[in-house]
Design goal:
The protein has helices at about 55, 95-105, 125-145, 165-180, 180-185, 200-210, 215-220, 230-245, 260-265, 295-305, and strands at about 1-5, 20-25, 25-30, 30-35, 45-50, 155, 190, 215, 250, 285. It is an alpha/beta fold. A 6-stranded parallel β-sheet has the order 5-10-9-8-7-6. Strands 1-4 form a two-stranded antiparallel sheet. Strands 2-3 form a two-stranded antiparallel sheet. It is globular and about 55 Å long. The relative contact order is 0.14.
Length: about 325
Amino acid sequence: MDKSPRMGDGTYADCKPGKKWTRGAETVPVCDIPIVETKKTTFQGRLGYACLNTILRNKKPASSAIFCSRTCRSSEMFPFASHEIYGYSLTYCAPLLAQIGDLAKKYGHRLTMHPGQFTQLGSPRERVVQSSIRELKYHCEVLDLMGIGPDGVIVIHGGGVYGDKDATLTRIKKTIKNGLPRNVRDRLVLENDELCYTAGDLLPICKELEVPLVFDYHHDMLNPSAEFRPAEIIEQANRIFHGRGIKPKQHYSEPREGAISVMERRAHSDRCQALPEGLPDDMDLMIEAKDKEQAVFHLYRMYDLFPVDYESVRPSVGREKGKTPIG
């Protein structure tokens, strides 16, 4: 078994279940890390993850934790910032956001955002559309104040179909074309989902308006496109990204172990056990898994993609056979 933590001289600390070691004033759990099955790949891109780092989120005591939210989704970072009446500018924390952006650039991190599901550009209700536009403007302001370049995209789904998918797609196209400020439209990308809109449904809008398409492998498995094979969609989606001077981005997740129904298979597994078939070699791939950065470390070790700091590696908590939390 791989042991955690690994010491600077290449040896391992005395790692036994339940034992802890001390780094300065911080007590760090020592874990037995199971050996992973090794696999080969030609992939040379980057892996990322959604929402929060689990170690920073779970630090004890709670007063030392970096985050108080379990997920810290982007729409929750500044509560009510896009509210019609009580919304506010983020200029009050512009210096702090600039520091965050500088830190991301220092470490070569790509920061992207995914507004809440209430962002519905195709709603038949104008008030919902206007609220959605304000939400996108808020996300754009965060990225702009961080000084994030064009790779800092804002990802949204098509949303509901409202009883008429074609009419809703027409409304989505109209809102993007006529309702979004230029700086917001420059960051907007669409993503296929597992229930309403396939990648094939969104591709014509994306090509016409030059809005990039984030291809989600898990969603495509549950809600595949009738007109196109995944390889065709990926090729055309990447062409839009490159034409806009934006690094292509995809999402990947796997269903929980034992999931059978569509609703069960929608839930993400704790970790992914393989990279997706057809993954381009040079791709930014976001891993959407319950174990967040630990799921990325798992793939790093499995495919020998990147050196892993074993002080930061944790074993899987094994939630898949029970109720899997949202996050």
